[in-house]
Amino acid sequence: MKSKFIELIKTIKSSFGQSDKKTVFYIQDINYQIRDNIIDGLFDYTKIDLKRLINGEIICYGIEKENNFVEMSYFDNKYIFRIYKNGIEEEIIVNEAKDIKKYFDELLNDKEH
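RE: above sequence
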């Protein structure tokens, strides 16, 4: 399953066509279509609609900054955060969505968790 995620993120990253210097918020729908927006200033967390994630309308929400990203998906009643920072990838599985802002802010503000 992890190799599918890695291949998927490579596809996502190549489809952006954005400069590595820009911060991008993206949504991937169930048809693997990606909508992305450049974040200019503070990120608006109201763009993340957990109901759409839980009911399967979308696969994930993500933020990409330079060569790093944080993605949030929902599977088997759990939130899955995929974090790729400075060449290291980790997956954190939690029961609640309370840490969304924490993980995204860490990437946006170059903090460690």
